[in-house]
Every structure is written in C-alpha cells, then in structure tokens.
Write a sequence for this structure.
C-alpha cells in the first residue's frame, strides 16, 4: 500500500513540476488548479504517513497517529472542496452564470473541518490490515458525497452550454472519484482514497490545464495577428511615407507633412507584432495617431482623452484599443454624419485596485434594434464563435479573445448604452507592470 | 561664439535635403559644410572638412555608421555625433550609447524639435572643453555657474537665484550662457535635468515620480511632458526600451 502512495506522490510531484515550470497564467481558474495541485500533494504525504502508522499501532504513539489522521482527513475534505470550486469556476466561465452554491460549500467546509478537528478517531484492527473507522472517517465520506453531489448538479444544470471536452473531463473525474470512494467504503483495508484524488487531478491536468494545449492556443493567436499584418512589408511602407513627408515639407506643405508624419507613426507603432503585450503608453500613442488622422478626415469629430498618467506603464495586449475606436467611428458616428465626440478614459477600477477600466464613449447613433443583444451574445460566447475573416465584429471579437487569453477570464470587453445617446465600450484589464507578474 | 560646422551623412538624399533645408541652422549658430552618402565618403569628408558635429545615419552602404565613428574617433576625438536611427535598428543605438556618442534621434525626424538635440551637443562640447582646460587658480564664472547648477539641479534654481548666489546681474548671466555655451539658460537647465533623469531611469529602480523630484521637477506630470517633448518617448517607455534592448528583447 505504502508503495502505491509513494508512486502517486511522485506522479503528482512530476505533474506539479511541469505545470509550474510552464508559462504563468493569470486567471482565477488556473490559480485554483495550482492550489488544488499543491493541496493534493500535501494530502498524499499525510495519506502515506498515516497508511504507515495505522499498521504500526503498537510502535507509533497514539497521539502522533491521531494527529496524522486528522491532517489526512482534513486535507482530503479541503481537496474535494477545491475540486468543487474548480468545476464551479469552470462552469461560470463557460456559461457566464454566477456560482450559486459557493456560500453553502464554504459553510460546509468550515463545519466539516471543525468535525475533523474535534471528533474522536477510532482504529479497526483486522488480520488483513488496520484502518481508521467510526464517526471521524464518516466526515470524509459525507464530504465527498456532498461535493460530488454539488459538482454533478453543476454538470447537469449546464450540460447544454458546456463544451464537450470539458463535459467529458468533469464527468470522467466525478465518475472515477465516485467509483474509488465506493470501493474504499466496501473494502476499508484497501486504503485507496489517495488514488481517487490523484486520478481526478490528473484528469483535469491532461484535458484542461495542459501547458501544451495552452501554448497551441497562443500560437494560433500569434499566427492570425501575423497574417493580418504581413500583407505588405511595413518598413517599406513607413520609410516611403517618410520620404514623401520630407518632400511635402520641402515644397512648403506643412499640413500634408504633419499628416504623413502621423501616418508613418501609425504604421511604425502597429508593426510591433512580435510582442503580445505592450505598455498602455505605446497603445495610446498608436491610438492618438489613428485619431488624429480620422479627425483630420472628418473635422466634425472631436476626441478627448482622460488618462490616469500612473497607468502608462501597465502592460496590455497589443492592438486592442484601435479596433474598438474604429467601431465607434464606423457604427456610432457614421450614422450622425461623422459629427460628434469620442471620449477615451483609463482609470483604476474603484472596487479592485489591481484592475483598470478603459472606456471608449461616443455620441453616435447608438445601437440599432437588436444589435446590442447580438454584440452582448458575441462577446459572452466569444470562445464558441466560428472564425470569420470578414465583418466588422471580427475586430472586437479578436480583442475579447486576446484579453481573455492573456489577462484572465474576469477581464474583458462589454458595451453599454449612454443615457444621452451613443454607446460606451468598457474594457476591464489587469494593472500589471512588466517584470512584476 | 563661432559657428559650428556640420556634416550630414545619410544614404537617402531626401533625408539629407530635409536636414539641410527644414532645420534653421542659422538660428542655432551652425552651418552645414558637407554631405556624404556612404561610410567611405563620410570618413574622407570628416578628414578634409573637420566638422564639429556629424549627423550620422547608422544603416549606410560600404561601411556602417558605427564603424565610421569608431575609426574617426581615433583621429578626431573632439567631434560630436548625432546618431539617426530607425526604430527597427534601435539596438544599434544602444550600442552607440555605450560608445559615448553624444546624442541620438529616431526617424522619422521632426525638424522643429531637432533644435533640442543641437542644444545638447553644444552643452556636451562645452563640458568637454571645460574638462580639457588646464586647472587655473582663477576659474571662469561660467564654469562656476554650471558646476553650481549641476550640484543644485534638484532644487528650484532660476536666473535670480544665480544672480544672488554669484552677485551678478541676471541679464548678464543670461548673456553669458548664450556667449559661452551657445544655448539659453533654461535650455541648459532642462538639458542637464533630462540627462540626470535618463541616468536615474536606466541605472536605478526609482519610480518616475522620484526620478522627477531628483531631477528638479516637483510635479511629475510636468516632468513627463518635458521628457516626452525632448526624448520623443515617455520616461517609462525610455526605461522599458533600455531594459528590453539590454536583456536581448524579452
């Protein structure tokens, strides 16, 4: 038995090593999985220790045996709770529905852990081997049953909205844990509870948290960016523009020279494709160049900036503001004959100082009948949209995808209608400086 | 102050024409004495024309701009160079900074703002001259004043403060700057403050607000604005670009 436990520890330690040495990820889901991985490892250590001590009742002091058992059961309850958390967060991210049973799960956890701490431990001695039984161990079975029940509830309630791959992963993990628990209940001397937890963790790791899958997603994003921008050699473009600019200025046309300077700026800034993340300053510089040019083409448009200067160094995904502003022009202000105002603001979020909100607000025509619902739906179910290569929504869809991928699931893009007409795009992003991830 | 001789080196004729005709050399006490379109020509021109300032594109045929600077440095150590670099070869630029080139600018060149760069060069030439001068018993007033400014640049210094400190007329001090260095008092002060700020940005981990304060700007917003105007990028971008290049583009 003890040999199996040690093997499990090695397997999980290896998984943890691979997982943590891969690129760090920001989202709540990944953080939960990290905690789960560590907790399961700790649990396995106590499991192995107690498997040894329970079979040497006469040589190991009773007190030490009890302490190890309390830790063993306590960490097990914690692990099952974390499994529930992980599945609940996963379902929330997929469907956008709030987690409903969070409070109940937390209260139960507190009560169960209290029970683990206080209830008496009892050991059964049999010729096949020793094990702990009685009320203390029943806490463990009840907890597993309780959380499995909650997880199954989530799975059934969201069956239609969940992606097949995720459904299978969750379903398989639950089935394994259920089976192992039943076997353990029927054959108390087998002491296989650790195996159930390890298999569940492995199931999630292999299907949902595998660094390779994540890397493949990154590559795909990068390729589509490259494709968009590589159709003409940008260096040629902006060097030529610069030559024309100087000629214009030599001919005495300062206005044309200034416009060409802005256009050259725009191209120069937009060729930084090799970076996924850029500083907000860089992103705003690109946007300013774009806005200057648009405002020159349509003199009826004014633009205003209200940027918190402390946020200039914050890292944001490359090229996310321009598509949003372009939408404001094409869908908002165009309907008003290109007259109106675009207002761009970036401030720290009030409720969470580690987040900032960028708003792009226009005084345009607002959403057409039913358009708001379509956009909301598009942005909420961004992951399931078929890749299209045309249409105006591809820009914001691409922004949403990259923000979710690089900044975490709680960040993202959404639209609201202004009371005085026009719409506001909201972009919630993390405030992280380079090198301080 | 005598006029400074300028040599333009760039393989694109339009860029040279731009420098020649769109920047007011006269107003900055300079004159363009020659042009070169490749590295070999540049070396020959430097030898025959003995310019004070060379405006140097890096990416030129036959011999790179950096090589030209390296070679001519040996023969003519007192020439000041302005590296003109595209954003795509900014890494060369970092190399140039390690070679103690006086200044660099990025393409596309904004000719109206090129004056800053020339002012910086004049200050650098002046400082070089002071360093080379043999130490005399009686030091010149301008040397004392500039040393005082270097030591007190974090404080609120102005012409009237200087006037009081050195018991001189403010008008006289202002004229002294124009005659001895070739730039105005304010341009000089801004320049040494920016130099200090750049040094702090790349060699310390002080926040931008702290760098602003130590460089004599109580309000870091003002500091950011001035910095952006003279360097073309914000202080945090400057620091990031420097770190990026030195760490091999992370």
């Amino acid at each position: 038995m003890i040999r199996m436990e040690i093997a499990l520890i090695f397997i999980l330690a290896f998984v943890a090593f691979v997982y943590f040495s891969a690129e760090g990820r920001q989202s709540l889901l990944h953080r939960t999985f990290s905690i789960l991985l560590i907790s399961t490892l700790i649990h396995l250590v106590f499991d192995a220790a107690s498997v040894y001590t329970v079979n040497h009742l006469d040589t190991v002091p009773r007190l030490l045996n009890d302490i190890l058992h309390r830790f063993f059961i306590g960490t097990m309850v914690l692990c099952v709770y974390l499994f529930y958390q992980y599945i609940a967060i996963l379902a929330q991210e997929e469907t956008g529905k709030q987690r409903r049973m969070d409070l109940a799960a937390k209260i139960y956890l507190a009560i169960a852990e209290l029970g683990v701490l206080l209830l008496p431990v009892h050991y059964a001695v049999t010729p096949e081997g020793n094990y702990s039984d009685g009320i203390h161990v029943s806490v463990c079975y009840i907890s597993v049953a309780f959380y499995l029940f909650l997880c199954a509830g989530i799975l059934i309630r969201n069956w239609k909205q969940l992606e097949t791959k995720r459904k299978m992963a969750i379903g398989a993990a639950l089935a394994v844990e259920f089976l192992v628990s039943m076997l353990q209940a029927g054959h108390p001397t087998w002491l296989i509870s650790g195996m159930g937890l390890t298999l569940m963790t492995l199931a999630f790791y292999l299907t949902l948290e595998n660094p390779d899958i994540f890397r493949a997603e990154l590559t795909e994003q990068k390729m589509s960016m490259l494709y968009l921008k590589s159709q003409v050699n940008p260096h040629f473009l902006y060097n030529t523009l610069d030559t024309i600019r100087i000629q214009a200025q030599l001919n005495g046309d300062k206005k044309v020279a200034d416009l060409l300077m802005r256009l050259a700026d725009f191209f120069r800034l937009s060729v930084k494709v090799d970076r996924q993340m850029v500083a907000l300053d860089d992103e705003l510089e690109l946007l300013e160049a774009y806005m200057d040019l648009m405002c020159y083409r349509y003199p009826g448009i004014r633009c205003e900036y209200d940027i918190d200067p402390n946020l200039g160094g914050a890292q944001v995904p490359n090229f996310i503001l321009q598509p949003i502003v372009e939408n404001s022009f094409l869908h908002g202000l165009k309907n008003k004959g290109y007259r109106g105002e675009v207002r761009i603001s970036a401030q720290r979020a009030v409720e969470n100082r580690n987040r900032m909100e960028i708003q792009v607000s226009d005084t345009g025509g607002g959403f057409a009948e039913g358009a708001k619902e379509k956009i909301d739906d598009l942005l909420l179910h961004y992951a399931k949209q078929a890749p299209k290569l045309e249409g105006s929504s591809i820009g914001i869809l691409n922004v949403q995808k990259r923000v979710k991928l690089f900044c975490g699931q709680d960040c993202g893009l959404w639209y609201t209608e202004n009371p005085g007409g026009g719409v506001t795009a909201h972009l919630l992003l993390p405030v992280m400086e380079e090198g301080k991830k | 102050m005598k006029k400074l001789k300028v040599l333009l080196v760039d393989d694109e004729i339009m860029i040279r024409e731009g420098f020649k005709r769109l920047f007011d050399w006269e107003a900055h006490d300079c004159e363009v004495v020659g042009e070169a379109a490749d590295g070999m020509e540049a070396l020959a021109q430097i030898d025959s024309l003995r310019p004070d300032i060379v405006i140097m594109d890096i990416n030129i045929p036959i011999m790179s701009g950096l090589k030209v600077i390296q070679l001519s440095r040996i023969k003519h150590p007192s020439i000041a160079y302005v590296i003109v670099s595209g954003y795509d070869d900014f890494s060369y630029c970092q190399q140039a900074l390690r070679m103690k080139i006086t200044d660099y600018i990025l393409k596309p060149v904004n000719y109206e703002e090129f004056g800053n760069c020339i002012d910086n060069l004049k200050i650098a030439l002046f400082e070089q001259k002071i360093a080379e001068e043999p130490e005399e018993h009686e030091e010149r007033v301008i040397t004392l004043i500039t040393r005082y400014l270097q030591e007190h640049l974090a404080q609120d210094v102005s012409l009237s403060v200087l006037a009081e400190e050195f018991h001189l007329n403010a008008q006289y001090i202002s004229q002294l700057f124009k005659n001895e260095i070739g730039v105005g008092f304010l341009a000089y002060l801004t320049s040494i403050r920016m130099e200090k700020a750049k040094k702090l940005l790349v060699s310390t981990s002080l926040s931008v607000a702290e760098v602003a304060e130590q460089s004599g700007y109580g309000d870091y917003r003002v500091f950011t604005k001035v910095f952006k105007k003279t360097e073309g990028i914000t202080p945090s971008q400057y620091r990031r670009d420097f770190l990026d290049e030195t760490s091999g583009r992370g």
Summary: Residues 300 and 337 of chain A are 8 Å apart (CA to CA). Chain A has 14 helices and nine strands. The two ends of chain A are 42 Å apart (CA to CA).
